[in-house]
Amino acid sequence: MNSLFDISGLRIDLDAHGDRLSPVGPVDLTLAKDECLGIVGESGSGKSLTLKALLGLLPDGLSMGAGQIRIEKGGDLVACQPERLRGHRVGLISQEPGAALDPLMRVGGLIAEVVQRHAGCSRTEAAARAVDLMRQVGIPDPERRARFWPHELSGGLKQRIVIAMALACDSDILLCDEPTTALDVTIQAQIIRLLRDLRDKRSLSLIFVTHDLALIHEIADRVAVMYAGLIVETGPTEAVFADPRHPYTRALLAAIPDMDSPDADLQPIAGAPPAATEFGEGCRFAPRCRMSSAACVAGQPELEPTGAGTQVACVNWRRSEKDAP
Ligand SMILES: Nc1ncnc2c1ncn2[C@@H]1O[C@H](COP(=O)(O)OP(=O)(O)OP(=O)(O)O)[C@@H](O)[C@H]1O
Ligand SMILES: [Mg+2]
């Protein structure tokens, strides 16, 4: 696989009154050109912090304690500082588009400002390019809507403006953090279709974070399942969905409502993920795991190849659920 973006050994540290806690990591991720990598996991698993670290946007008190980020340049992967990627090669689409838009600027002006900063062109050229970008992201009547204030647009149109701003920087990688969670299902489907179209037309590569496994199945070529700050299973989406090996991935899949048998009982995962203060030496999923055995508390298992194109971090991955003690 030709990597476009590569993260190795990423660890995010939190300074807790002099003690070091690491809510995320070590995490390795790689993204190929034109690929969509899905990251899925329960709330608090570290999905957003991972994306923020990649852009140097970690909140106060948190820092990148270890790891290297490399990006493709002239055919090679070169180390880079996260801050330098932001607004250049890498754009961020977040859950709440309103937060990314300055309420005191008209939306056309917001996009034009990015164009001008990036391309160094005149204001008139930037304004024309902003309208063109609004058209590309499917905003109807873009000449008129360019004069709208952010609050005059619906959530779906706001998210399209944020996507246009990322395209204005000529970003070739989009980090999407639950970009459709705040939108209703029809608008959600439209935004997903737009991201897919852009990926095909503009050769964009995506990292797509969500807790919606059905969405991952629809959009992602590869998936990384995160639990308590670590990737516990990863591989081509079809392979992971067809034959999940980590008990956590199996449990997540079992918790999806089945539209073919609406009366079937949902199987929620008992218990809650641990906070960083509760991480122990052993597998972080062990306390909730039906398969857990003495070996699970000895140490955190590393990702290992299953032979089916996927990797899994579980000492019991060869056992099936039927063998659960
Ligand atoms: N500003 C912060 N200070 C301290 N800890 C934080 C901070 N932000 C996040 N964390 C902790 O880091 C962990 C990962 O948080 P993160 O926001 O990345 O989760 P997430 O997977 O994106 O969850 P969600 O699906 O709810 O968005 C959580 O346990 C959270 O409590
Ligand atoms: Mg999040």
Describe this structure in words.
Strand 7, helix 7 (185-202) and strand 8 (205-210) form a beta-alpha-beta unit. The longest helix is centred in the middle third of the chain and has 18 residues, at 185-202. This protein has helices spanning 47-54, 82-85, 107-119, 123-136, 142-145, 155-168, 185-202, 213-219, 237-242, 247-254, and strands spanning 3-16, 19-32, 36-40, 62-73, 76-79, 90-93, 173-177, 205-210, 222-227, 230-236, 304-305, 311-312. Among the domains are: 96-170, no CATH class; 226-259 and 270-323, no CATH class. The protein has an eight-stranded mixed β-sheet with strand order 6-7-8-3-9-10-12-11, sandwiched between helices. The chain has a four-stranded antiparallel β-sheet with strand order 2-1-4-5, with helices on one face. The chain has 325 residues and is α/β, with parallel strands linked by helices. It is 30% helix and 25% strand. The chain is built from ten helices and twelve strands. It is globular and about 70 Å long. Helix 3 (107-119) runs parallel beside helix 6 (155-168). The model has no long low-confidence stretch (mean pLDDT 89). The structure holds adenosine-5'-triphosphate and magnesium ion (MG). Magnesium ion binds at residues 47-48, 177. The site of magnesium ion (MG) has 3 residues, from helix 1. This is Peptide/nickel transport system ATP-binding protein/oligopeptide transport system ATP-binding protein. One of its GO terms (cellular component) is plasma membrane. Keywords: ATP-binding, Cell membrane, Membrane, Nucleotide-binding, Transport.
